[in-house]
Amino acid sequence: MARAIKYKPAGNFSWLVSTIYIIFLLLPIYWLVNMSFKENAEITGAFSLWPQNPTLRNYMVIFTDPSWYNGYINSIIYVALNTTISVLAALPAAYAFSRYRFLGDKHLFFWLLTNRMAPPAVFALPFFQLYSAFGLIDTHIAVALAHCLFNVPLAVWILEGFMSGVPKEIDETAYIDGYSFPRFFVKIFMPLIASGIGVAAFFCFMFSWVELLLARTLTTTAAKPISAIMTRTVSASGMDWGVLAAAGVLTIVPGALVIYFVRNYIAKGFALGRV
Amino acid sequence: MEKTWNNKAWFLVLPVLLLVAFSAAIPLMTVVNYSVQDTFGNNAFFWAGTDWFDDILHSARFWEALQRNLLFSFIILALEIPLGIFIALNMPKKGIGVPVCLVLMALPLLIPWNVVGTIWQVFGRVDIGLLGHTLAALGIDYNYVRDPLDAWITVVVMDVWHWTSLVVLLCYAGLVSIPDAYYQAAKIDGASRWSVFRYIQLPKMKRVLLIAVLLRFMDSFMIYTEPFVVTGGGPGNSTTFLSIDLVKTAVGQFDLGPAAAMSIVYFLIILLLSWIFYTVMTSSDADN
Amino acid sequence: MSFSWMAWTLPTALFFLTILALLIGMSIWEYFAPGGSPRVGILRFETTRGDRLFISLLGSAFIHLAWLGLIGPNLWWALALAVVYAIGVFRFV
Fold first, then answer.
1. What is the pLDDT of residues B165-218, one digit of tens each?
2. Which of A97, A152, B178, C29 has a CA-to-CA distance to A106 between 20 and 30 Å?
3. Which residue did the predictor score with more confidence, A93 or B245?
């Protein structure tokens, strides 16, 4: 983002567009945060724009009950596993696509993309059978592997874009200098596309974190993600809105942290390195 | 970049191939197997031939869900793509505003999909939601649980809220890659705002727009969690999209055969439409 | 582990073996005549042999569905039509 881009924006009110859009984005989130600090009686009883009697009760419920906070740990474990597997598998493949032509390469690439197009609903049932056959149901690795279905193609797509931006002469010089392929790849090539790896990892994190259907299908108790546990808030005494809102707010936090750390790469990353 | 022809590159692709084949090929073959058989559980299967496909193709419920889904994807693309381009053009290009905008705009993308559903379910409720309450106070009769049109509007606005940022960020990434010299040249020529957009900015955004259209089409066509949480497919069947219908059949009624046949038809439609998008946009790319 | 849940049947096994044989056949063809003979056909964009196979297979799937939906359950005629269509694709697209 160091490059300063100077041209006259659409008008003097262009900042207004971004501002209105951001307000539109933040209003529903604000409402959730607002609810998470209220007592249930206040939520259903009186309508107020901010908490009249701010309380931390809803958050305490989550932080003191293992069945709640384990959900967060489970989600984080399988997301981390998935991100690692996806990026590691995608690195050599993306190198192959960016440097070589080989038999059926274009069709292989499109086939990979078709897996991104397959509705998770289609796969939920056979996945359950497949992972049962391997005894993997209710493990973190099952969810991590299932999410590879759409994350590996995406990681290949992103990394291929970044790698194509690295001139081929670098590879050739390294080989002449006597580097073997693995050593060249780890020592020279990977540092050059470090930001690309970061961006690919960001996208894998994002799509694994937000997915629910497969994660819920493949887990029962031990590896259940937080987003599936949230449905428990409907109890005999009615809906526990406050805890639901607090749990929702807490699922936003990891995403917000990750965005903050990669903020300088976001724009570049969304161009997938190719532009 | 010139690429060398080398079939040994297959070895580099092998890990991805095995991983995706395990996650995709085996389940896909299983779905095909189920689609021609009937089962009563316990792994006992009976040949059913093409009966399930016959049922699906003559089921009004399937065609209605398909029409709803196509209409939904069309509305989503028609709203989010132009809106995304417009916002990207008006985003700040330097200074403190850039990271602030990027971080805040990316926020909805990182929220788990059922939480997105929950947020809007709460936000739109007439009794406890800000949106529902405000509309009611203004005298507008809005209730997404009862009124199909309100349910549709809620689901569409929710998707715009959730995904427009993806289009914005993609377009913005395309815009910042345009060298300054282009704009100076345009200024010297006295080019209008429109021609700067048409001949400089739009061509540069073409590739990212391809990605945006493809991703938004595929994801809106597969949408499940968010509308399911908000409306549960109702009122009636008014927001029952293909995925929701599919899960109702597969999990709710445990009809493996019909669900598998429906999966295949559904997947073929996605494959065809995505292939058309992909081909049209990549070949028009090659023309330039 | 058991794979009985995959519920294989002879027809579906034959179907996948055919697809596999087609892919192997295409690889052999490609080995003897590399490059995939790209050309611009009646669809007015460049296609290779592999693209033509993909268009044939996807088209055939929809021919079968259309036959089932509009005419009747005897799919042998649809198969014949699909073969004619595939020959057409390889000839003109």
1. 989 988 888 888 778 888 888 888 888 888 888 888 888 787 778 878 888 888
2. B178
3. A93
Chain A neighbors of C50, CB-CB under 8 A:
104, 106-107
Of C7, C34, C46, the CB nearest to B33: C7
Q: Do A100 and B5 touch (CB under 8 A)?
A: yes
CA B16 to chain centre: 24
Write out pLDDT tens, residues A128-161: 888 888 888 889 999 999 999 889 988 998 888 8
Decide if pLDDT at B19 tops 60: yes
pTM of the model: 0.85
What residues contact B164, with CB distance under 8 A and at least 6 apart?
A: A21, B79, B80, B83, B84, B87
B79 touches chain A (CB under 8 A): no
How much is the pLDDT for A2? 40
User: Domains in chain B, please, with CATH?
Assistant: 61-287 (1.10.3720.10)
Give the CA distances from residue B256 to residues A124, B54, B141, in Å, rounded to whole numbers and listed in that order: 12, 15, 41
Cβ–Cβ of B43/C5 closer than 8 Å?
A: yes
Domain A66-270 belongs in CATH node 3.30.470.20: no
C-beta atoms surrounding C15 within 10 Å: 15
Domains of chain C by residue range? 4-92
* Segment B261-281, tens digit of pLDDT: 888 888 898 888 878 877 876
d(CA B78, CA B243): 21
Q: Do C50 and A132 touch (CB under 8 A)?
A: no
Is A129 an interface residue toward C (CB < 8 Å)?
A: yes
Beta-strand runs (E) in chain B:
4-5, 37-39, 45-47
- Mean pLDDT of the region B146-153: 87
Contact A104/C27, CB-based, under 8 Å?
A: yes
Q: What are phi and psi of B39, to 5 degrees?
A: -140, 150
Q: How many CB atoms lie within 10 A of CB B187?
A: 12
Of the candidates B193, B162, B154, B180, which has an alpha carbon nearest to the alpha carbon of residue B84? Answer: B162
* Whole-number average pLDDT of chain A: 82
Model confidence at B125, pLDDT cuts 50, 70, 90, reads confident
Cβ contacts of A110 on chain C, cutoff 8 Å: 54
Distance of CA A17 to the CA centre of its chain: 27
Q: Does residue C21 surpass a pLDDT of 90?
A: yes
CA B29, B32, B35: angle at the middle one, nearest 5? Answer: 150
Q: Which residue has the tokens 């309508």?
A: A47
What torsion, rounded to 10 degrees, do the Cα atoms A199, A204, A209, A214 define?
160
Residue A66 distance to chain B (closest CA, Å): 20
Within an 8 Å CB–CB cutoff, is residue C35 touching chain B? no
Neighboring chains of C (3 or more beta-carbon pairs < 8 A): A, B
Q: How many CB pairs under 8 A join B and C?
A: 57
The answer to whether the CB atoms of B105 and A164 lie below 8 A apart is no
The tokens describing B106, both together, are 């990316």
